[in-house]
Amino acid sequence: IYRVYTIFILFIMLFIEFLLHQILRVVAKDEVQLSLIRELEDLDFWRGVTDVHSPVDVRVPSHSLQSVKVYLETLDIEYSVMIEDLQVMLDEEQEEMDSALRVVEPRDTNSFDYSRYHTLQEIYEFQDMLVAENPSLVSKIVIGQSYQGRPINVLKFSTGGTKRPAIWIDTGIHSREWVTQASGTWFAKKIVTDYGKDPALTAILNNMDIFLEIVTNPDGFYYTHSSNRMWRKTRKPNRGSNCVGVDPNRNWDAGFGAPGASNNPCSETYRGPSAHSESEVRSIVDFVKSHRNFKAFVSIHSYSQMLLYPYGYTRTPAKDQAELHSLARKAISDLATLYGTRYRYGSIINTIYQASGGTIDWTYNQGIKYSYTFELRDTGRYGFILPANQIIPTAKETWLALMAIMDHTNKNPY
Amino acid sequence: MATGDLNPNHYPAQRAAKVVQHYLNTRHGSPFRLFGLHSVENGSAENVNDTGRKYQLGLTVHEIISNTTLNCTAEVIFPDGAEQQPPVVQVSCEDLSKSNATAEEEAFYQQYKSNQSLVSAQNLPDSYGHIDPDKKPFWHLGIVASSFVMLNESNENTLYNMAQVANITQLATENEQLKFDSHILLHDMVSQEILHWKLLFTWSPAEGVEVQDMEQLRRCNH
Predict the structure, then answer these.
(1) Distance from CA of B210 to the nearest CA of A (A)
(2) B174: exposed, middle or buried (C-beta count within 10 Å: 0-12, 13-18, 19+)?
(3) Which chain A residue has the Cα nearest residue B157?
(4) Contacts across the A-B interface (CB distance below 8 Å)
(5) Which of A398, B56, B89, B118 is the most exposed, having the fewest neighbouring CB atoms within 10 Å of its CB?
(6) Complex ipTM, two decimals?
(7) C-alpha angle with apex A151: A207 to A283, nearest 5 degrees?
(8) Are B125 and A268 inside 8 Å of each other by CB?
(9) Which of B76, B68, B56, B77 is nearest to B96 (CA)?
C-alpha cells in the first residue's frame, strides 16, 4: 500500500509540476550580458542562447523565480514574462487537444469543412495539406514570427517566373474578425480549384503571383479561442502598463502619430511604441520591401460591408482616387450579383473614420496602387460573431470582388 | 463637422441613422420585432444655436424578423455640451404601427410568466455565431434592452451595435411583466472598444421593454 501511496504522490506532483512556472523572455544587450545569461545553464531553455538582441526563452520553476529575476535585474538584463503560468497554458492546450480529438481530422483539403470556424492548429495543418496536394502551384513561406514565437505563414501561388508582379491578400490581422480567416482558407482552396478551369483566374496566375496570409495575427487568434473571443490586437505586453497588445492596423508607418489612433496601451486602437514595432507588421513590411514587385494589396477585415481605399490618415485624396473609386464600384457590384449583399465604398476617412498608421495607407505610399481594405459581413446584427453558415456565402461573394480587383490589376500593368 | 447636404454613404449620416435604429428598437422592439438600419437615402446637417447639431435623414429600416423594409424620415439632434447627453430623435415610418408579431409575443409571454423555473441563457450568440432557436427571443430582448443604452450613449463620434448577450437571467416578479437581469457586450465601431453593461429590465406585450437599471461595468484586466 506504501507503493500505491508513493505512486499517487508522484502522479500528483507530475500533474502540478508546472504550476506557477513562468517563461521569461530575456534579451542580451551585449556579449557580456549574453555570457551571463548562459550562466543560467541549469534552467530549461525553450529558445536557446544565440546572439545579442535575439530573445532567449527560459522556463523558470516557481521556487527559482525570485532569485532568477533578482539576478537579471541586478545585472540590468532586460526580460519580460512571456507565459505567466505555464500550468494554465498547458491545461488549456490539453483541453484543446481533447476537444480536437473528438472532431475528425480532415485527411485532405477536400474533406476540410469550410463551413466551420477552425483553430489555429487546424489552419496551419490545412496550409501544409494544400501545399502537399499542389506542390507545383503552392508553396509556404514563413515570413517571420509572432511575438509569442508562432510562425507567420504566407501561401504563394505561382506558375513560375521570377519575381513576377504580385497580388497580396491578408486576412485575420484583427483576430476577432473570424469570418476573415475562414474566408482566407476558402480563397486558398478556390485558387487551386479554379486554376486551369476558370479563364480569368488562369490568365492572372499565368502572369502574376498571388500571396495569401490567412492568419496575420496568430497570437491574437489563439487568444480568441483560448480566452477572449473579442480580442483584436497583438499579444505583446506594453512596458509600464497592465494592458496588452498593439492594434496592428495602426502600427504602420503612414501618418503614424497623427490623429486616428491612440497612444494609450489600454486602447483597442493603440498604435504601439513606434511604427512597425509589432513583428506581425514588420514581417510584412520587410517582405513587401524586399519583393519590390507588388501591384495590388488587399487587407481583409470585418464587419461593416465596405470596400475602402486610401487614405485613412488624411483627407487629401489619393492621387489615383478616381480609378480606385470606379474599380471599387465595379468590385462591389460584382459582389452583389451573388446574394444581393450591399456594400458601401469610398476612402477610409470619408466612409468609416479617420485612422492613422493603417496598412493600405502604407502600401499605397510604397507605390502599390491597387491598395484596398474590405470590411466583410455583416452590418452589426451579429458583428464579429457571424454564424458559421454565412462563411461560405461571404467568401464566395467576396471572391467576386477580389477577382474584379485582380483582373483589373492584371490588365493594367504599371 | 459636416454641414449642409451629406453624402448618405459617408459616416456622418450613417452614424445619425444608426441612432434612429436604436430609437425605433426602444419604442417598438420586442422578442419578435427588431429593427436594423437598411440604407440612408439622403441627409443634411446644420448647427442649431444653443442646442446642438441637427440631422434630417431619409432612410430605410429593415424589420428583421418579418423581413420587411420600411421607408422613414427622421430628425436627430445631438445636444451641445462637454458631457454625454442622449440625442433627441423624431421619426416617422410608413406602416410602423402594424406588427405581425402579437400572437408570438403573447405566447412567449405566457410561457415564461407561468413557467415553474426561471430561465437563464449565456453567450448569445456563442463564439461560432450560434444561438439555440428557443433562445433567440432572449437575444432579441437583449438587443432591445441594450438599445436604450446605445441610444443614451450615442453622439456624432460613436456607432454602436450589440456584440453579445453574455448572460440573461429571468427574475421572479409579483407584477405583470417578465423581469430580467443581463450582462451585455456593446461594440463601438469608432473606438473599436467592447463595453460591458449590466441591465435590469422588464418586458410585456403591452408595455414593451422598460429598463429599470443600467450600469457600465469597468474592466480592470486587458
Answers:
(1) 22
(2) exposed
(3) A353
(4) 83
(5) B118
(6) 0.97
(7) 60
(8) no
(9) B68
**A101: Cα separation from own chain's centroid:** 25
Q: Are strands B120-124 and B160-171 parallel, antiparallel or unpaired?
A: antiparallel
A225: closest CA of chain B, how far (Å): 8
Residues from B contacting A (CB-CB < 8 Å) are 7, 9-11, 14, 18, 36-37, 39, 64, 125-130, 161-164, 185, 187, 189-194, 220-222
Question: B97: Cβ–Cβ under 8 A, 6 or more apart, which residues?
Answer: none
Told to judge if A375 belongs to the known catalytic residues of this protein, a careful annotator would answer yes
Instruction: Give the residue carrying C-alpha cell 480606385.
Output: A324
Q: Let me know: does A167 contact A187? Beta carbons within 8 Å.
A: no
Contact check, Cβ <8 Å, B125/A344: no
Q: What is the pLDDT of residue A10?
A: 65
Q: For residue B187, which of B165, B159, B212 has the smallest C-alpha distance? A: B159
Residue B141: phi and psi, rounded to 5, are: -60, -40
- Those residues of chain A whose CB sits closer than 8 Å to some CB in chain B are 116-117, 178, 224-225, 229-230, 232, 242-245, 247, 266-269, 304, 342, 344-346, 350-353, 379-390
- Write the DSSP assignment of chain B as a string of letters: ---EEE-TTSHHHHHHHHHHHHHHHHHH-BTTB-EEEEEEEEEEEEEETTTEEEEEEEEEEEETTTTEEEEEEEEEEEE-SSS----EEEEEETT-S--S-HHHHHHHHHHHHS-SS--EEEEES-TTS---GGGHHHHHHHHHHHHHHHHHH--TT--EEEEEEEEEEEE--SSSSEEEEEEEEEEETTT--EEEEEEEEEEETTTEEEEEEEEEEPP---
Q: How far apart are CA B212 and CA B105, in angstroms?
A: 21
| Position A29, amino acid | K
> CA A221, CA A177: separation in Å to the nearest integer?
9
As beta bridge partners, residue B63 has B35, B68
Q: DSSP secondary structure string, A98-127?
A: HHHHHSPPPSSTTTS-TTS---HHHHHHHH
3-state secondary structure of A53: coil
pLDDT digits (tens, 9 = 90+) for B201-220: 999 999 999 999 999 998 76
* Residues of A with Cβ-Cβ distance to B221 under 8 angstroms: 242
Q: How confident is the model at residue A99 (pLDDT cuts 50, 70, 90)?
A: low
For residue A193, count other CB atoms closer than 10 A to its CB: 14
Distance CA A337, CA A316 (A): 32
Rounded distance between C-alpha atoms, residue A212 and residue A63, angstroms = 45
Nearest chain A residue (CA) to B126: A385
Tracing cell 464600384 back to the chain, one arrives at: A329
Of B11, B163, B190, the CB nearest to A230: B163
d(CA A220, CA A86): 18
Chain B residues with beta carbon closer than 8 angstroms to that of A381: 36, 64, 161
Residue B177 reports pLDDT greater than 60: yes
What count of other Cβ atoms lies within 10 Å of the Cβ of residue A341? 18
